[in-house]
Design brief:
Strand order of the largest sheet: 1-2-3
Oligomer: single chain
Helix content: 55-70%
Distance between the termini: 49 Å
Structural class: mainly alpha
Radius of gyration: 23 Å
Strand content: under 5%
Length: about 375
């Protein structure tokens, strides 16, 4: 069967690594800022109320409204419960972690997560981006779980949450005086420097990991990723061989319905924003596929840049510009993205015949170029 033709049915895994979280303190208010991508809103359709053909008494109206609203609340609540659990697994970098969040009220009655953390739930409902929602969950778990993390997990926590500079500061304060690092630390440090676009330093860390742990899957994937970015022709070919040793193993687990599922957070997944991007480009994937995988690699500036390029090529120029804008704001050291954003703003100005279009942002990005020479 061809690589892009396979179709596997999902099956449940037997998980043994279990964490029970009882009575986590509900958060009344979250005041830390989050980075929210400003995307162009889709056209909203406002439904009009049509005159009823049968009379409804005033006493019946609240009951009807409540009954109609309940399914929407439950649907959002169930998604919230799933995502807060997913965030806990991601926070600890363990997709196999079995999490049981138990919360009780003052009378000992069991509460669902969205009932217990109502203010957090309200904020969550207002956020469109998957990783902006993950971000508020990360800050939530910081209150009770941060001290439980190992050094490499802290690096991952900040990198995946789009705070690589914080990760670098954490490294300098807590890890820079060490000579030897674990394989997990070497992989996380390689990812950190890739996000900072310092690929040579990333290569130093991951080459050490590959030399000492050549059979570790996570090491293989990161080593192949870095080698693909800056290697010569023969090194790139070698990187593909190394990557597919892990990639094929994930496919054979028989738990994916799409080749792109192999890049999504799950047991044995191939955590490579670069190879995910390559597969999307080479298979000429549509917007839905890009959006799906983008949820996993929102932290990677190179992936997000290529996503913007794809949107532009698929005749979504305004959405592409929105993505470039947020990318340039969150990763101002990525000169290619900032220059492209400036060029796109000027292009849209001409198309709209509006010389003041995004003037504030344009000045911001022009200043950013000067500050990141």
């Amino acid at each position: 069967m061809g690589l892009f033709d396979f179709l596997f049915k999902r099956k449940k895994k037997n998980q043994t690594n279990e964490v029970n979280l009882k009575n986590e303190s509900p958060v009344e208010e979250l005041t830390l800022p989050i980075n929210e991508e400003k995307s162009v809103p889709s056209e909203e359709i406002n439904s009009q109320i049509i005159e009823e053909t049968t009379a409804t008494s005033e006493k019946e109206i609240p009951a009807i409204i409540e009954a109609a609203a309940a399914p929407f609340i439950n649907e959002d609540g169930n998604r919230f419960n799933l995502e807060i659990t997913e965030a806990f697994k991601r926070y600890h970098c363990d997709p196999t972690l079995e999490v049981n969040i138990e919360v009780e009220d003052e009378k000992g009655n069991a509460l669902t997560a969205y009932e217990a953390y109502n203010e957090l739930f309200k904020e969550w409902k207002e956020i469109q981006s998957k990783w902006d929602r993950m971000s508020i969950f990360y800050r939530f778990w910081d209150q009770s779980q941060f001290e439980e993390l190992e050094h490499w997990q802290v690096i991952e926590r900040f990198v995946k949450d789009r705070y690589p500079k914080k990760a670098l500061l954490y490294f300098e304060k807590n890890m820079s005086d060490r000579r030897n690092f674990s394989k997990e630390e070497l992989v996380s440090l390689s990812k950190l420097h890739r996000v900072l676009l310092d690929n040579l330093t990333a290569k130093e860390y991951i080459e050490t990991a590959y030399k000492n742990y050549p059979d570790d899957d996570a090491v293989k994937v990161e080593y192949a990723t870095v080698l693909h970015i800056i290697g010569n022709h023969s090194e790139k070919e070698h990187s593909h061989e190394v990557f597919h040793e892990v990639f094929d193993k994930k496919i054979q687990q028989n738990d994916t319905s799409s080749v792109f599922d192999c890049f999504k957070f799950s047991e044995g997944y191939t955590d490579s924003s670069i190879f995910a991007m390559v597969y999307l480009i080479n298979t000429e994937a549509d917007n839905d596929a890009w959006d799906n995988v983008a949820e996993e690699y929102y932290y990677c500036p190179v992936f997000r840049y290529e996503h913007a390029v794809q949107l532009s090529q698929s005749e979504n120029p305004m959405r592409a510009l929105a993505k470039l804008t947020s990318l340039s704001q969150e990763f101002p050291w990525f000169r290619t993205a900032v220059e492209s954003t400036i060029g796109n703003i000027k292009s849209v100005r001409k198309q709209l015949d509006n010389p003041d279009f995004m003037e504030k942002e344009l000045q911001e990005f022009q200043a950013s170029l000067k500050n990141h020479k």
